[in-house]
Request: fold
Amino acid sequence: MTGQVLRETTSERINQKKRTRSELLRTARRLIEEGSSFSVADVADASGISRATAYRYFSRPEDILREAALDAIAENVHLPDEIAKGGTVEQRLDEMVGQIFRMVAENESVFRAFLSAAVTSDEIPRSGRRLPWLAEALKPIEGKLSKPAYEDLIAGLSLLTGIEAIIVLRDVCAMDIDRAEKVVRWSAQAMLAKALAEAE
Reply:
C-alpha cells in the first residue's frame, strides 16, 4: 500500500511539473507572438510562476525559445477529418506516423539541438508530444488490447516517431530521408499487426 501511495505521489509531482512547464511555454509563445524579447524571469512574471521555479526548468532564454518553437511546429500534426472520422486504424497510424516523421525531418536541425540539450540536462522529462498523437491514431483499437499490450505498442511506436529514428536511419544506416520515412512507416504497421495478432 505504501508503494502505491508513493507511486501516486510521484506521478502527481511529475504531472504538476509538466503543467508548470507547459504554462511557461504558453506564456513564452504569447510573448514571441507579441514580438517581445524576454528573459526567463520575464516569462516567469508573466506566467505568475516564481522566478526560482522557472529557472529550474529553463536556465537560459534560448532554452525556452527553442522549446516554444517546437510547440509551435508540433501544432500542425493532426489527423485529416476524412481519416479521423472513417479511416481504419492502419490508415490512422500510417498518416500520423508519416506526419510526425515529416515534421521532425523538416525541422531536423532544431530537433537535433533539442535532443543534444536534453541528454546533457538533469531537468524533468520533456512533455512527450508524440504519445498523445499515437494514442489518437490508435483510438479504434484501445479497447481491443490489454492495458499492458496497448502501452507496449505505444512505447514501441514512440521509438519510431522522433529525431532518434532519423538519427539511426540517416547517420547509422546511411539512408536518404525518403527511404527512412518508408522504413519508419513500414515498421509502425508491422508493430500494429503484431499487436493485433497477439490480441486475437
Notes: The mean pLDDT is 86. DSSP finds eleven helices and no strands in the chain. The chain has two domains: 1-61, 76-200.
